[in-house]
Design goal:
The chain is about 25% helix and about 25% strand. The protein is of the alpha+beta class. It has 2 domains: about 80 residues; about 60 residues, no CATH class.
C-alpha cells in the first residue's frame, strides 16, 4: 500500500487516493462533500480511522524542496463535519521519506527515493538515535532540529542530495 503510517495516521499524496484500502476510502468518501467544498489548496491527506478525522495538508514546495515545510492544515472530524483551518506562519514542520507518500509512477519518485537512501546510508534517519536528549524520531520533523542534526553530522542537503561538508565549515 502506498502511504506513510505514523502513530495511527496514514499520509498520502492526493494523486493516489484511488489506492486507498477500503477502510480509508470509506472515511474519505464520507467526508467528500466537506473536502470538495473547501477552496483550500492541499497535496497530502492525513487519515486517522480511529479518530474518524482527516487533515488536508498543504506543502507548497513538495516537489521542489527535499524537506518541504507545512504551510496549512485543514482538519475535518467526522463527528462535527466542521473544517478547522490552521494557517501555519513561520512553519517548522517538515517531511522526510517523500517517496512513501506517492507511487513509483510519480515524476519525482526516483529523486525522492535517492535522497532517502543517501540519508539512510549516513544514519540521518535513524529514529532511535538520541539527539538533544530525545529520540530523533520524535523531533526530526522540526525544521530547526533537522538542520542542527545535519550540521552535527557535517552534511547539508542540496537539491535532493546529501553533501558532505569540509571539516572546517
Amino acid at each position: 500500500m502506498v502511504g506513510k503510517k505514523v502513530a495511527g495516521d496514514l499520509y498520502l499524496h492526493k494523486n493516489y487516493l484511488f489506492l486507498l484500502g477500503e477502510d480509508y476510502r470509506s472515511l474519505v468518501n464520507e467526508m467528500e462533500n466537506e473536502i470538495n467544498s473547501l477552496k483550500e489548496d492541499w497535496n497530502l491527506i492525513k487519515i486517522n480511522i480511529h479518530k474518524r478525522r482527516i487533515s488536508l495538508l498543504y506543502y507548497p514546495t513538495f516537489d521542489i524542496d527535499a524537506h518541504p515545510i507545512l504551510k496549512r492544515s485543514t482538519s475535518i472530524n467526522l463527528s462535527s463535519h466542521q473544517p478547522v483551518i490552521k494557517l501555519i506562519k513561520g512553519g517548522n514542520r517538515i517531511l522526510h521519506r517523500k517517496e512513501l507518500f506517492v507511487d513509483c509512477d510519480y515524476p519525482q519518485f526516483e529523486k525522492f527515493l535517492k535522497l532517502t537512501k543517501e540519508e539512510e546510508k549516513l544514519g540521518l534517519l535513524d529514529t532511535q538515535v538520541l539527539f538533544q536528549g530525545k529520540k530523533l524520531g520524535t523531533i526530526m520533523g522540526n525544521k530547526r532540529i533537522w538542520e542542527e542534526w545535519l550540521k552535527h553530522n557535517n552534511v547539508r542537503i542540496e537539491d535532493h542530495s546529501v553533501v558532505q561538508l569540509d571539516k572546517g565549515k
